[in-house]
Structures are given as structure tokens and as C-alpha cells.
């Protein structure tokens, strides 16, 4: 599930499985469909 948070006066969308943050809800939804619930191997 994607959650919405306010940070730095912006709205961010966070993948609840791995914690990756997106500034676009559609991108977050697409990521969640493929997320394997592990920490990303790149910097957020």
C-alpha cells in the first residue's frame, strides 16, 4: 500500500513495503506492483 506524507512542504508517496519515496502517486503505484519488499539497493 502507498501512504501519503508531507515533508519539506511537498507531498510524498511512500511504499509501505520497502520505504521508497516518490513525488508522483502514479509512480509509487507502479513501483508497488513490482516491489519485492526489500530495501532498495540505491540511494533514495
From TrEMBL:
Residues 1-44 form the DUF7128 domain. It comes from the Archaea. Pfam families: DUF7128. This is DUF7128 domain-containing protein.
Amino acid at each position: 500500500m502507498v501512504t501519503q506524507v508531507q515533508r519539506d512542504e511537498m507531498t510524498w508517496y511512500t511504499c509501505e513495503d520497502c520505504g521508497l519515496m516518490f513525488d508522483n502517486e502514479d509512480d509509487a503505484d507502479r513501483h508497488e506492483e513490482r516491489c519485492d519488499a526489500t530495501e532498495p539497493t540505491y540511494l533514495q
